[in-house]
Amino acid sequence: MTDEVKETKSKLPLIIAAVVLVVALAGGGGWWYFQQQAKQQAMAEVAQNVPAAALVKKPVFLPLKKFVVSVPGDDRLHYLMMELSLMSYSQDQLDTVGEYMPVVRNAVITLLSEQHYNELAQPGVMKPLQEALRGSIQTVMNDMASSKGIDQVLITKMVIQ
């Protein structure tokens, strides 16, 4: 009987060590799993805030030089000089816009000539004007080439006299 007690006592530290090892491995595995879940959730939040194209490619720009348009005012005609840059995440889209440049320039000039001097002279006009220009260009590009054409319009220079 003493041999059986010795064998049981000698196995007890081995069993305790095995249990401690299993618990430690399970705890480490659980910690690693939850860290990976948190990392994936953070990446998903970043992906929602940034356009998908921006994660893959850098933006490319197409400058549109000097538009000079007369705009009506209350007592006389005024002149608007503007330069734009079109931004897209696809060079192919900007190449398509370049092929239809006369139509694009016509859409910009038409939109600008419909504006009133008092509206253009107001503070905060840039953002709505950029959105209107983008919508006008995208409509023309969709009609002409079945392409949305651009992602953003940037006003790089604007002078009203």
Overview of the molecule:
With 161 residues, this protein is an alpha+beta fold. It has two domains: 2-49; 55-160, Band 7 domain (Tetrahydropterin Synthase, Chain A, 2-Layer Sandwich). The protein is 61% helix and 21% strand. The chain contains six helices and three strands, in the order H-H-E-E-H-H-H-H-E. It has helices at 2-49, 52-56, 91-99, 101-113, 117-120, 126-145; strands spanning 60-72, 77-88, 152-160. It has a three-stranded antiparallel beta sheet with strand order 1-2-3. A hairpin with a 4-residue loop joins strand 1 and strand 2. Helix 4 packs antiparallel against helix 6. It is rod-shaped, with a radius of gyration of 33 Å. The mean pLDDT is 84. Controls the rotational direction of flagella during chemotaxis. Keywords: Cell inner membrane, Cell membrane, Cell projection, Chemotaxis, Cilium, Flagellar rotation, Flagellum, Membrane, Transmembrane, Transmembrane helix. It is a single-pass membrane protein.
What percent strand? 15-25%
Residue-averaged pLDDT: 84
Could you estimate the helical fraction of the residues in percent?
55-70%
Give the oligomeric state of the chains in this entry, treating copies of one chain as homo and distinct chains as hetero.
Answer: single chain
Number of domains: 2
Question: What is the number of strand segments?
Answer: 3
N to C succession of SSEs: HHEEHHHHE
Full CATH superfamily name of the largest domain: Band 7 domain
Q: Please write the CATH class name of the largest domain.
A: Alpha Beta
Question: Helical segment tally?
Answer: 6
* Strand line-up in the sheet with most strands: 1-2-3
N- to C-terminal separation? 110 Å
For this structure, the CATH topology of the largest domain is Tetrahydropterin Synthase, Chain A
Alpha-beta content class: alpha+beta
Main sheet characteristics: 3 strands, antiparallel
CATH second-level architecture of the largest domain: 2-Layer Sandwich
Overall geometry comes to rod-shaped
Radius of gyration: 33 Å
Detail the poorly predicted runs: none
